[in-house]
Amino acid sequence: MVKVTINEIVCKGCGLCVRACPKSVLALSKTKLNAKGYHPAEVAVPEACIGCASCARTCPDVAIRIEKE
Question: Which DSSP string corresponds to the chain?
Answer without folding.
Answer: -EEEEE-TTT-----HHHHH-TT--EEE-SS---TTS---EEES-GGG-----HHHHH-TT--EEEEE-
